[in-house]
Specification:
- The chain has 395 residues and is an alpha+beta fold.
- The protein folds into 4 domains: 110 residues, conserved putative lor/sdh protein from methanococcus maripaludis s2 fold (Beta Barrel), CATH 2.40.420.20; 98 residues, Efflux pump adaptor protein, beta barrel domain (Elongation Factor Tu (Ef-tu), domain 3), CATH 2.40.30.170; 59 residues, OB fold (Dihydrolipoamide Acetyltransferase, E2P), CATH 2.40.50.100; 75 residues, Helix hairpin bin (Helix Hairpins, Orthogonal Bundle).
- Helix content is 25%, strand content 34%.
- The protein has 5 helices and 23 strands.
- Strands 1, 2, 17, 18, 19, 20, 21, 22 and 23 form a 9-stranded mixed β-sheet that branches.
- Helix 2 runs antiparallel to helix 3.
- The longest helix is centred in the first third of the chain and has 36 residues.
Length: 395
């Protein structure tokens, strides 16, 4: 073979070789843990932010005017019904009472005298022994004395009431707050706020629910749901569990048209006064739905743009060329696992798990560990020892 022909043959081989398409590198399979979805009975609690509220609360105002001459309680303490709390200067009210009492005694004496005169003149009038004018005058005097006596009685009642109002007592058993007045302050009748007193045992707890849940809570209130222990429990501000359970007391009369919510009031025993008015709490409402639920580990959930997904494992058949293997060293085809995104709808979160309302069914296999390394269609391999999870109760 001459030299030009040899060179041409070499160049042709090089051109043919360079024209061959390079196969892209086959993506490496990601090692993951898989979980088989299975329906199961779940015990969980719905959580609601709540506020402690006194069942009865009263702002104390004086009924009469005067200077504060006595304060007889410890601020922040528990007081009993009828316990003396404040005293307003009683001098003027005692004087008014004594004067009214004296006027009543005088009116009573005048009435007795008028009654005697009227009786005597009535007898004389029947026997025509006295002038008619004198008799009429005696009867008029008696009527005036009777009216004066009634007026004196009412005046004494008013004076007694004002005297009693100079002492402010607790209207019921409860907790009293900081005094808004000090000794020597002038209190205006019906205007000056002295203090606030509220009941402490039992204690109300208020929270809001969506109007769609109203029938459910009405059935609970009407005892149409199966009885269950710990239906309503509380989480205190320090995240500890309150030791007493509650029950529904009141469902508000109307739904808020702006928010579509309605207020529920629960009642809890509060013998140790651990709950205080205005305290921020979390109400846990025990789930009464005994229908099996789909529960998966929350670690399997991926959030994108406000939507939730999981990676579902699917078994696919791969050809030798897909696998990047030589036909001389492998069987014609083999099975491989791939991870595909599946949109889901979440239900209640039961840490570390979550209930799935839509998107999955029994028997589906999903990735529960390694989701950070996946994209839609990623090849995967299952780690040895992948295990299922069990839902547990959250309190």
């Amino acid at each position: 073979m001459n030299k030009p022909i040899l060179i041409t043959a070499i160049i042709s081989c090089m051109i043919i070789s360079s024209c061959k398409k390079e196969q892209p590198p086959h993506p490496q399979a990601v090692s993951v843990n898989l979980y088989t979805v299975k329906s199961q009975k779940v015990i969980y609690y719905d959580r609601y932010t709540a506020t402690a509220a006194a069942l009865s609360q009263v702002n104390l105002h004086p009924q009469v005017q005067g200077y504060i001459t006595g304060i007889f309680f410890k601020e922040g303490s528990f007081v009993k019904k009828g316990e003396k709390l404040y005293e307003i200067d009683r001098t003027i009210y005692e004087n008014n009472y004594n004067a009214a009492l004296a006027n009543l005694n005088a009116a009573e004496s005048n009435l007795k005298q008028s009654q005697q005169d009227a009786t005597r003149y009535e007898y004389l009038n029947k026997n025509r022994a006295v002038a008619k004018q004198i008799y009429d005058h005696a009867i008029a005097t008696l009527e005036n004395s009777q009216s004066a006596y009634k007026a004196a009685q009412e005046a004494l009642k008013t004076a007694k009431t004002n005297l009693d109002y100079s002492i402010i007592t607790a209207p019921f058993d409860g907790s009293i707050g900081f005094s808004q007045v000090k000794l020597g302050d002038l209190a205006a009748g019906g205007a000056t706020l002295l203090n606030t007193i509220s009941t402490v045992d039992p204690m109300g707890v208020d929270f809001l629910i969506n109007e769609k849940l109203l029938p459910y809570f009405e059935n609970i209130q009407d005892n149409k749901m199966p009885p269950i222990d710990s239906l309503f429990t509380l989480i205190l501000p320090d995240n500890s569990a309150y030791s007493f359970t509650g029950k529904i007391s009141v469902i508000d009369r109307a739904v808020d048209s702006q928010t579509g919510s309605i207020r529920i009031r629960l009642v809890f025993p509060n013998p140790k006064h651990a709950l205080r008015t205005g305290m921020s709490l979390v109400v846990l409402v025990h789930n009464l739905d005994l229908t099996p639920q789909l529960v998966i580990p929350y670690s399997a959930v991926v959030e994108e743009m406000g939507e939730y997904f999981v990676y579902q494992s699917k078994d696919s058949v791969m050809s030798n060329s897909d696998a990047g293997e030589s036909s001389s060293t492998a069987s014609p085809q083999r099975h491989a696992l791939f991870a595909f995104q599946r949109k889901i709808s979440l239900g209640a979160i039961i840490e570390p798990n979550v209930i799935i309302k839509k998107g999955l069914k029994d028997g589906d296999k999903i990735v529960v560990a390694g989701v950070q390394s996946l994209h839609n269609g990623s090849p995967i391999t299952q780690k040895e020892g992948s295990s299922n999870v069990n839902a547990r109760t959250t309190r």
